[in-house]
Amino acid sequence: MSNTDQYDVASIRNDFPILGEKIHGKPLVYLDNAASSQHPAQVINAVKELYESGYSNIHRGVHQLSQDATKAYENGRSAVRGFINADCMHEVVFTSGTTESINLVAQSYARPRLQKGDEILITHMEHHSNIVPWQIVCEQTGAELKVVPISDRGELEMDRFAELLNERTALVSVTQVSNALGTVNPVAEIIEAAHALGVPVLVDGAQAVPHIPVDVQALDCDFYAFSGHKLYGPTGIGVLYGKEKLLNAMPPYQGGGDMILSVSFDGTTYNTLPYKFEAGTPNIAGVVGLGAAIEYVQKTGLGAIAAHEYGLLEYATSELKQIDGLRIIGEADHKAGLISFVLDQVHPHDIGTMLDAEGVAIRTGHHCAQPVMERYKIPATARASFGMYNTLQEIDVLVEAIHKTIGMFS
Predict the structure, then answer these.
(1) Which CATH number does the domain 9-30+301-409 belong to among 3.40.1280.10, 3.40.50.1000, 3.40.50.300, 3.90.1150.10?
(2) What's the rounded Cα separation, in Å, for the pair 389 and 14?
(3) What is the dihedral of CA 265, 267, 273, 276, to 10 degrees?
(4) pLDDT averaged over consecutive 10-residue blocks of the chain (410 residues)?
(5) How many CB atoms neighbour CB 386 within 10 A?
(6) Whose CA is closest to 34, among 95, 98, 82?
């Protein structure tokens, strides 16, 4: 495997308490990271410490606890800014997750600007959260949704993208890494082509930020969305990055406390960025936990994590291809650490149940990407997705469990 001299996976595993658990008497092999990753003790302790000794509501109180909690919250924002290389902290908006981030852009940026004849351009490999918000806003405005097709290998048909991108395109929204196929899309190329026509681009980075370095300024994307729970952080916390000029021009997504400067019955003055989009008491512990997760990932090094996971992907792909009756869905040249597959004569849900009996946790189903399943004419797949703490030995356990499953159903 790449990077073995520098990458101490045993030490990393020791930081994740849940990896010592047993499932049905077998050591846990957790290969469901694309759905939600596990949490290192550093994240768990950061949240625990906040609740035990430093919790209060933020931005409102003059007492010490409120001041301390506010500082911890804004430190989390600073961590995000540095992690994705945003230009400034007020380009970082906290949401409940990628889903809310995309909905915020759909309703606050796109809806006021769209009209009949405009087009939103997405791809066939998108997660439902990057499809449905655009369907809703198209219904509201009369705009049309256009879809870039994918090849049998699970790669975007970039010639069709070039044809579909035109003067009617009002916005492009694309995933950086497919959650169902593992495909790493050429988002820099997509952004450059869109910007040549003056079209803004939103990038769904939920599956990218845990695995590859992301620099929003280098990408020059207009919006970037991701979730904490796939980045070894808490659930219920996410990020929307937006260019300052765009966020300033957008109306608030929700109304309530903290997103205002003054309120009267005659009218309301909204708060400055980013608070204009953070109505109500936020997920304070989620932000603190996300900051701790980012610090942990940065200390480990995303480059080292990416190299480790690529080694896992190569090994798992090689081993799985040797299994008779197993077909990998999505064989793009550029993939992140994720493999979706099907077995002859065995439904993916049965695969998941059998593997669970061996202590192996994978995801089965349509992965909130039903159009992908329709594209390959299958009801579902089994999906093994890797994280920084997975090992070659765990892949061996996965392969052995698949062989047992085939034996049970043959």
Answers:
(1) 3.90.1150.10
(2) 9
(3) 50
(4) 66 98 97 98 98 94 94 97 98 98 98 97 98 98 98 98 98 98 98 98 98 97 98 98 98 92 92 95 97 98 96 98 97 97 96 97 94 96 98 98 94
(5) 26
(6) 98
Which of 7, 84, 37 has its CA nearest to residue 306? 7
**Phi/psi at 328 (nearest 5 deg)?**
-85, 130
**Integer CA distances (angstroms), 174 to 102, 166, 188, 368, in order:** 11, 16, 11, 15
Encoded amino acid at 93, one letter: V
Q: Which residues are catalytic?
A: 368
* AA identity, residue 23: I
Predicted pLDDT at 3: 41
The 10s digit of each residue's pLDDT in 45-98 is: 999 999 999 999 999 889 999 999 999 999 999 999 999 999 999 999 999 999
Q: What distance in Å separates the CA atoms of residue 204 and residue 35, rounded to the nearest whole number? A: 15
Q: How many C-alpha atoms does 256 have within 13 Å on its Cβ side?
A: 8
Measured at the alpha carbon of residue 332, what is the angle toward residues 329 and 333, in degrees to the nearest 5? 150
* pLDDT at res. 116: 97
β-strands 201-204, 169-175: how paired? parallel
For the chain, the domains span 9-30+301-409, 44-298
Fold of 44-298: Aspartate Aminotransferase; domain 2 (3.40.640)
Helix (H) or strand (E) holding 204: strand 201-204
Q: Which residues pair with 383 in a beta bridge?
A: 340, 363
Q: How far apart are CA 210 and CA 141, in angstroms?
A: 35
* HSE (side-chain half, CA atoms, 13 Å) at 73: 25
Q: Which amino acid is at 274?
A: P
Q: What is the pLDDT of residues 163-200, one digit of tens each?
A: 999 999 999 999 999 999 999 999 999 999 999 999 99
